């Protein structure tokens, strides 16, 4: 999730780009850059000045203040690295071979490797490791004197997600924006125009915006903004008036980052799959490109993590055992590091860490590595310690997560682990083509299904309010939904400070049930699975102890009809997909309980986003 801004107008572009990037920094901050078309001196050709910083926006601003380019057209970018480390060369804007076309990008170009190979064969040179760099070169390759036509032709070849702001130094009065699967707005000022990844960038300048639709291109000139499709068909876009302040805009209009991030889950789920999965379920990880033979030699999988990431590890453990048929174990990294680890060179060590910097997880990774295991970090942060220290990385591509309690990145972790399990099962020949296709279908349907849960926010608010008066909670589930129940309890206690514990349905009778009475509610995950009937029996046992029950039940399942419970109906989906949807529901439930109690959900007391000490 990068921040992008473009400006065309009567004022100096550079200060506007600088201020906008500062406001966009919450979207990504590992490097930044601007390109400004400088006002030509008489008799000279147009010249574009590029300033980049491999550090935060402040460093870029210092550089610009020392050497301020003067011009009325420019683009800027603050980067959350996806392809290639946060270096000067990888910082945007990117340009073509002749330094005429300038592009900033948010998103992931899925087919960049194929396009890059084709362009390299035609003589184009690519200094950076980014996916973005194919865009200016592809435009250059299609350029026959009409920049907009070249942009359209280039974009027709691109698969994946993009929000782009672009210009050519041959067209000093044309700023172009385009989007697909990533947001982009055009700000309409008084004789001046902006293109931005979100309105946070432009809110002090204008309240009037055009929101581009999927696959649409905006051509901005001093005469106005024209929106069209990639085929050049004009689109009539609606002008939207926004009255947010900057803080509201950064939260996308949501009251908290946590809620905004829960609402980003459909994208987090889609981005974790992007470019990695074919229709036949062939999985590739660019930064964990291990030959089939090496993967085939894996005899067991060790998954390490802390907090929410430990729950992701437990979900991974379950699917790897189930789909791959080899032993897998999820371990609390802080405990693992003080045990005598039984791992060897046939162990695959999967470290799960959103930040890539959790101290206990890193030490555990080093120990497993020392014993010769093959390691992979599943992380959201490019070039984080875990990504650097492991043999490979699977990046989540979720964009920054600001709420301390992890939400969207857990879902991305789950999807990544599902893909890893499919990859391992495929090399082992343990999963049929038919089953893989089924899984692909289930995974691809997930972003919309997550949207479906988010759309039922009101129902969840009602339940949360009904239950917010209790001081204790139990969450129970079985199979894949056991870690989901643990996570439901963790989320609730983290942000609401209500005592909550998670248990497996089976374990309930071995202790936790002693706690239950009419003041101790249980959230029971009873969605369709091979152990659903067992969970239904557990609910009967709970109800018999007079404990209130909120049950998650698959639509069309009537097992709990007539049992005094609150029911939240979940869609009938594949079990692995159901775990994702159940997680989203429980995140929203915890959020709304905490908000009802007036807690600081984004920064809960005593907690840190990243725990870099033991
Ligand atoms: C902290 C955060 C949790 C997170 C855990 C692991 O405790 O508050 O939300 O799950 O660290 O973080 P990691 O970055 O390794 O996933």
Characterise the protein shown here.
The chain is built from 19 helices and 25 strands. It has 614 residues and is an alpha/beta fold. The mean pLDDT is 93. Helix content is 36%, strand content 22%. The chain folds into 3 domains: 3-250, Glutamine Phosphoribosylpyrophosphate, subunit 1, domain 1 (4-Layer Sandwich), CATH 3.60.20.10; 259-452, Glucose-6-phosphate isomerase like protein, domain 1 (Rossmann fold), CATH 3.40.50; 456-596, Rossmann fold. The structure holds 6-O-phosphono-alpha-D-glucopyranose (G6P). The site of 6-O-phosphono-alpha-D-glucopyranose has 16 residues, from helix 10.
Which sequence of strands runs across the widest sheet?
3-2-4-1-10-9-11-15
List the bound ligands. Answer: 6-O-phosphono-alpha-D-glucopyranose
Here the CATH topology of the largest domain equals Glutamine Phosphoribosylpyrophosphate, subunit 1, domain 1
Mean pLDDT: 93
Give a count of the beta strands, DSSP E runs of length 2 or more: 25
CATH hierarchy class name of the largest domain: Alpha Beta
- Profile the largest sheet: 8 strands, antiparallel
Silhouette: globular
Beta fraction of the residues? Answer: 15-25%
The CATH superfamily title of the largest domain: Aminohydrolase, N-terminal nucleophile (Ntn) domain
Query: End-to-end distance, in Å?
Result: 30 Å
In short:
With 614 residues, the protein is α/β, with parallel strands linked by helices.
